[in-house]
Amino acid sequence: VGTEKINTDIVTLTRFLTEEQTKHKEATGDFTLLCHALQFSFKSIAYYIRRATLINLTGLAGSANVTGDDQKKLDVIGNDIFVAAMKSCAKVRMLVSEEEEEIIMFDDYPDAKYAVACDPIDGSSNLDAGVSVGTIFGIFRLAEGSKGTKEDLLLPGTSLVASGFTMYGASAQLVITMKGGNVNGFTLDNALGEFILTHPDMQMPKKRAIYSVNEGNSLYWEDPVKDYINTLKYPSEGEKPYSARYIGSMVADAYRTLLYGGIFAYPADKKSPKGKLRILYECAPMAMVFENAGGQAIDSHMKRMLEVVPEHIHDRSGIFLGSYDEVQKVIDVHKKYM
Ligand code: AHM
Ligand code: MG
């Protein structure tokens, strides 16, 4: 009586990856090693994000412009951690990071089969307030005989072999999906230093009356977007309007949308005709997660997000992602204008 039932057979990410690898007879173990480096970078970034708040607090006493500097420092630290992890696993040929203008080539590993795109700390404007931020990643397998040029990375999301994100919130939550597979969520147990499978086979709700968008941009929205959002706010007689939730960290807004359902949008508008979010390391990886969890993701032309091909590595796109039925509503309203 009173004794807690202790699970002595938990599934860690390490165990999960080993089990995945054994399912694929042709697997060489390279992908598993790459994922081990990934999870190390998440643990490490999670640790520094927690510490950064403490540094900011002590910093308040002395220096004036400490906030801006520290925030930048953390962006740089996150990037450096990620780049070092990807390099040291020896399985990555090239890397695109939001923090780096140019593609990074790991010439020490000319035969490495993978290319990675990442936003090491997305939503960093939220950092100083201790609001959730995250890392987004997408993994491509380079085509046979690829010369390792940057054109090799201008690929649609359908070429991703795996993608996901880690949200640094009350706890660090890692969500990962593989091509054609399901979506699995892990929670970092800080004491064990392990990601534990807490959300196996995530399936998102088919619909939910929550919308997540920066409404401050509505002046710049195109008519179909205005029309669509208005249908949520001013529904037909007898129906309830939607709730608004917007954190301003894509990873946190997307994670909530994945769990609770609803829609997240960052549409292209008159001010940003190509949208704000980046295709390779924000839109495409998220789109893959949402589709594999039963949702939908489209761009501002109502095209499937995963089929959008970036023209350059930092190319942007408008995006709507969320519950299947909620994204369908966006498409239906836009059809009236086509
Ligand atoms: P960042 O990569 O510079 O952090 O910008 C991306 C972030 C997303 O996390 C978030 O969805 C969006 O920018 C918020 O933008 P806005 O402040 O315009 O609403
Ligand atoms: Mg970003």
TrEMBL record:
EC code: 3.1.3.11
Xref: InterPro entries: FBPase_C_dom, FBPase_class-1, FBPase_N, FBPtase, Fructose_bisphosphatase_AS
Taxonomic lineage of the native organism: Eukaryota, Fungi, Dikarya, Ascomycota, Pezizomycotina
Pathway: Carbohydrate biosynthesis
Quaternary context: Homotetramer.
Record domain Fructose-1-6-bisphosphatase class I N-terminal: where: 12-200
GO molecular function annotations of the record: fructose 1,6-bisphosphate 1-phosphatase activity; metal ion binding
Protein name: Fructose-1,6-bisphosphatase
